[in-house]
Amino acid sequence: MRVEYTGRHYEVTPANRKEVEAGLSKIRKVLRDRFETKVVLAVEKHRHKAEITISSRIGPLVGLAQAGDMTAAIGQALEHLEKQALKNKTRIITRKRRLHSQWNGKAGDEQSGRARSESDSTMVQKFPAVAKGMEIHLVRTGDAVSLRPMTLEEGIKEAHFRDRDVFVFRDPKGQLMILHRTRDGRMELIEAP
Hints:
four-stranded mixed beta sheet, SHC Adaptor Protein, Double Stranded RNA Binding Domain, 30% strand, alpha+beta, 2 domains
């Protein structure tokens, strides 16, 4: 911990240094990392001002205080810094906990509009039960159609491999088959006449 002292119309005494370093040791326990500190002690008329700035990895923390004597001003500035450090630490911890629970799938599934499927461990998108407006989307693609005949099991594997919700193919007898993935992740077979 590096501390830089500056006195403006005031001579920094060893007692002041000792008080600042004792207060910074408490803050160091909260922040748990190395930081640089700049201490400016000033006297203007009859006001004693203490400005303590800590540059840490979570950002700068600044404590300003005015009092009738310098030890009171230093104490108030250190109190202000300690409150800021505790506030920042709790904010970071709660953010990490929230992100950790989202990654584990415990929370946040409802917030993101997704739900876990019981049949498999993949995420399935929820859609509204009733469509608000009827728009016709025409999509022409060759990825959802198989040119060669295949069995039902091969069709299911191919639909999963191509990651398609609708997959069209012909069985070995030449009958047209359509596989459709439902909202809950299951595959439905539609036999066309």
